[in-house]
Amino acid sequence: MKIFIDSARLDEIEQAFGYGIIDGVTTNPSLLKKAVDKLEESGEKITIEEYLKKILKIAKGTPVSLEVTELKQDKMIDQGKKLYKMFNPVANNVNIKIPVNPSFPDEEGRDFEGIQVVKTLSKAGIPVNCTLIFTPEQALLAAKAGAKYVSPFAGRIDDYIRKNNNISFKKTDYYPAEGFEENGKILDDNGIVSGIDLVAQIVDIFHIYNLKAEVIAASIRNSIQARESALAGAHIATLPYGVIMQLLVHYKTKEGMKNFTDDIVPEYEKLTRDK
Ligand code: E4P
């Protein structure tokens, strides 16, 4: 499974790429806002254009998602094309993130605008990451429309199921992949019992129909969910910096290091130390 960093913060992206295990970057308007807030706090003066170009250069050779902010079909297409034209020449690694359904709650009649944008941009040769996916059928339509990536939001599904059932939780709390049982019944949203179940169902459908789109397990809250994304067959998991940092931590590894270090035979160590 590939690992992307889910961040628009240059410091986090730079650090994570320095570890040599990052395969791409995903951003969204909220992540960009966080990054810009942080920049303003630091007093650093840089335009958003220059800032994004720096990210693209750090990620050279790996894909970076930039999301549209327009809501209507024609404007999304126009913005997607402009973003691609403006930023792809920097390092040839931009894909455009399009919400699968850009309409607001209670708004009717625009549900297919995102899919039409995916189709138009993909046909024009612009790689698309179709985002805000909460059902396997949304993912299926995105793949049929030509999306290169589909991004199911695992953590947000878990949050939604917990909220709808008055279960209190912290953002990083683990939610069981097989679902949460209450009064003898597994809680669900529209037949989906967890975020990982959503990822797994999409992976299964893409296998059955040999669809080329890659599944990005997104909205990942902790390292167990990253592991379960891999077990579910996600092609990619996009992880916040904090989750990436958790991936290598185990108390027994650290304790083992301390014990091995305490036991070092001086003559063995000397063999290479002075060479
Ligand atoms: C995916 O591409 C999104 O940027 C992201 O994973 C959303 O995560 P969140 O639910 O933690 O905001």
List keywords for this structure.
single chain, 275 residues, alpha/beta, TIM Barrel, two-stranded antiparallel ribbon, 12 helices, binds erythose-4-phosphate
Task: Describe, in plain words, how this protein is organized in 3D.
The protein is an alpha/beta fold. The chain has a single domain, classed as TIM Barrel, CATH 3.20.20.70. The strands form two sheets. Strands 1-2-3-4-5-6-9-10 form an eight-stranded parallel beta barrel, surrounded by six helices.
Blueprint (SSEs and pairs):
Elements: E1 2-6, H1 10-18, E2 24-26, H2 29-42, H3 48-58, E3 64-67, H4 73-91, E4 94-99, H5 113-123, E5 128-133, H6 136-144, E6 149-152, H7 154-164, E7 181-182, E8 185-186, H8 195-208, E9 214-217, H9 223-231, E10 236-239, H10 241-246, H11 251-262, H12 266-273
Parallel strand pairs: 1-2, 1-10, 2-3, 3-4, 4-5, 5-6, 6-9, 9-10
Antiparallel strand pairs: 7-8
Erythose-4-phosphate binds next to helix 7.
CATH homologous superfamily caption? Aldolase class I
Please indicate the count of domains: 1
User: What structural class is derived from the secondary structure elements?
Assistant: alpha/beta
The ordered H/E elements are EHEHHEHEHEHEHEEHEHEHHH
CATH topology: TIM Barrel
Percent of residues in beta strands?
5-15%
- What overall form do the CA principal axes indicate? globular
Radius of gyration: 21 Å
Bound molecules: erythose-4-phosphate
**CATH second-level architecture:** Alpha-Beta Barrel
Helix fraction?
Answer: 40-55%
Please tally the β strands and state the result. 10
**Major sheet details:** 8 strands, parallel, barrel
Q: N- to C-terminal separation? A: 39 Å
> Please, how many helices?
12
